[in-house]
Amino acid sequence: MSEMDVILEAEERPRTGLWPFWRRAYAKGDPLPAFPAPASRAYRFDEGDPLPEEYKALLIRMLRHEGERAGNKSFLGLMASCLDIAETLFPTREAKVLKAEYLAEELKHAIMFHRLAMGLELDFALRDVPYAHYSFHLPRESWADDALFHFFVDLNGAFHARDWRESSYVPLAKMSATVERDELGHSEMGYHFLQRICESPRGKAVVQHLLGKWYPAALDMFGRSDSPNVPKFIGWGLKSVGNAEIRDAYKTYVDGKLLTLGLDLPDERANRKFL
């Protein structure tokens, strides 16, 4: 049995009644929008294949934004902050257990992305790449902050992983379904916490106020709609949709979830940095 088989087998064992959250989400059908297949499948590269210079540079650029690598010290620091929050802010024992499961799966991703990076460029695999996007640096001062972080930020990862299913880089395409599934589950964990918080009028008011911080940051995570690099990514088969298209699909999804909680949607252009 391979190392990954051991991990996958462990995931099938009985857990809490809630974990993993992705099981319930996918049991109702495909929860995420389908993105169009690439217009061209002219490129297909596997680990060890010689890569065109521009292709390799774009692939590494894309993977830098993910950050989930065992060799990335900044990722380990982010995980440490999640542990701190679980220690200090969690409202129940169940919530702390769920956060522990979340950390275990994120560390699994760190192994997967580390091995992908090792097959791509050794220096990159061991490089510390601080998280550039400001959403990772917003203060999480309350349990509601943390719930919104997981709901929005982990969902961003799920949407990108959905797009990687058709990636021209074979190792990334192979792992995309697992990453998508897990990250959607992590977002559903955050949403579960939000449901509990919004059960009280005070908690709902807190979440409504905090949307002014997290909603624009979540939409900004997809970058500029007019990014000059997007046609290059699409041309090489590393992405199938542009930043504006994937952001619109994401916004439609999160808006529906927020409305179900009885929350008012913020102005989608307010406090935005990347339109």
Keywords:
mainly alpha, 62% helix, 275 residues, Ferritin
Short description:
This protein has 275 residues and is an all-alpha fold. It has helices spanning 3-11, 21-27, 53-66, 73-88, 93-118, 122-125, 143-164, 170-197, 201-220, 230-235, 243-260.
How far from one another are the termini?
A: 47 Å
* Fourth CATH level, the homologous superfamily: Ferritin, core subunit, four-helix bundle
- CATH topology type: Ferritin
Strand tally is 0
Mind explaining what this structure looks like?
- The protein has 275 residues and is mostly helical.
- The protein has one domain (49-260): Ferritin, core subunit, four-helix bundle (Ferritin, Up-down Bundle), CATH 1.20.1260.
- The chain has helices spanning 3-11, 21-27, 53-66, 73-88, 93-118, 122-125, 143-164, 170-197, 201-220, 230-235, 243-260.
- The longest helix has 28 residues, at 170-197.
- 32% of the residues are buried.
How is this fold's topology laid out?
Blueprint: H1 3-11, H2 21-27, H3 53-66, H4 73-88, H5 93-118, H6 122-125, H7 143-164, H8 170-197, H9 201-220, H10 230-235, H11 243-260
Helix pairs in contact: 2-8, 4-5, 5-8, 7-8, 7-9
